[in-house]
Amino acid sequence: MIVDSAKTRTRRLxxxxxxxxxxxxxxxxxxLLLGLVLLAGALPAITPGELxxxxxxxxxxxxxxxxxxxxxxxxxxxxDPSGSGLIGSEDGPWTxxxxxxxxxxxxxxxxxxxxxxxxxDSARVARGDTVxxxxxxxxxxLDLAVLMVLQAGGIEWKAVSSYGSSSWGATExxxxxPEMERHLHQEGLLSRRSLWxxxxxxxxxxxxxxxxxxxxxxxxxxxxxxxxxxxxxxxAVDLRRQAFGRWRNLAAYINVGGGHAAIGSNHFxxxxxxxxxxxxxxxxxxxxxxxxxxxxxxxxxxxxxxxxIQFQAVHDLTEDWGLPHPPRELRSPAFLEDRP
Length: 340
Description:
six-stranded mixed sheet, 42% helix, single chain, alpha/beta, disordered N terminus, globular
């Protein structure tokens, strides 16, 4: 469910109205200042200039990843029609579950920065706020878009990511999501990295994979000083909550992908609609409050009253926002109308 920003955005008030309605009606200076404060509250979370910068930064980051992976060669256009370099293989070393190539292709375009900016606006996130972010390797293009928008908009972020990816995501050796993060940070394109990196996959610990693959993946993780191995799904959820600090100090929570610590094991994350969660998702969370299974971060933060933005069911979001599918260029065309 995507909340219409027109319904949630602060209503603009003319300064003259504020002046005349100000108690006493005579202190026009204070009235003017109050009016400016109210007008400032109606500004978008991400200004047009910041959004343009975020898209440019996303394009630079995608091209840097492409060069890291392919050098001067072009990616396979049948799998990566926009030439992003952000599409992996179907069954690479970091593949932990099945995924849709079509969904991965749809994320490889700069227009997702506009979607993210609009959702942050609807959530009333502002410059200087802090948001919590969880990411997996399943949608590296979306991971990049979220971070580039937050970075361009002056919004602080605390992230915990996982290595595992569904098919066609960041599945390749040397090009997992944590390795992409490290590369972009070293290149000066990313201001910081995730606080911790966990295995991902089932229960955030590679559960269900063949022993030989688990052993090989854990060996690959040894080179990352920020890698941690939760013993249970509950520990994986607690690790992230501790990393993010007091929920009252956060302005929103954003999740990209189907990481089990985010969606939980009580089916909430699978049943909730993508985008900015609203009343339907809150009622669903209340209905599942006493259900069996581990409560994931999506349900936890929503029940606390925090704005929660979820990026799953990418096909639905692509259609809702009128993005090209599949994209043929990295830079998306201008939107013809406000969506959704």
